[in-house]
């Protein structure tokens, strides 16, 4: 187990995470592991788009989790969305996606790496 996984495990234990979310975190990990750096280079070439990129993917991940909950009352969708989104931020997923974005940009064009460095 690497350090990042150990930290995530400890955070999961310390943060009061509902069981229904714990059971679906594998979906988040799998989704993030399937992100493609070439997509960032093709569709998100500017580093000032990081917030749009991260928010879009975070929202998509939350929707995937919610779609996996067939008994969810439509009236509770917004509240559940916000709760799951917040928990994923607390667990460090927003930072992980943000780091992926910057690393991808940095590797897009090796001649101009300095241009894509984090602010």
Write the layout of secondary structure elements.
Layout: H1 3-14, H2 19-22, H3 25-33, H4 37-43, H5 50-67, H6 77-90, H7 93-108
Describe this structure as you would to a colleague.
The protein has 119 residues and is mainly alpha-helical. It has one domain (3-116). Helix content is 67%, strand content 0%. It is built from seven helices and no strands. It has helices at 3-14, 19-22, 25-33, 37-43, 50-67, 77-90, 93-108. The model has no long low-confidence stretch (mean pLDDT 79).
Please sum up the structure shown.
The chain is built from seven helices and no strands. The protein has about 120 residues and is mostly helical.
Please tag this protein with its features.
7 helices, globular
pLDDT averaged over residues: 79
Globular, elongated, flat, extended or rod-shaped: what is the shape?
Answer: globular
Please tell me the total number of domains: 1
Major sheet attributes: none
H/E element sequence: HHHHHHH
What is the straight-line distance between the termini? 31 Å
Please estimate the helix content. 55-70%
User: Whole-number radius of gyration?
Assistant: 16 Å
Number of helices: 7
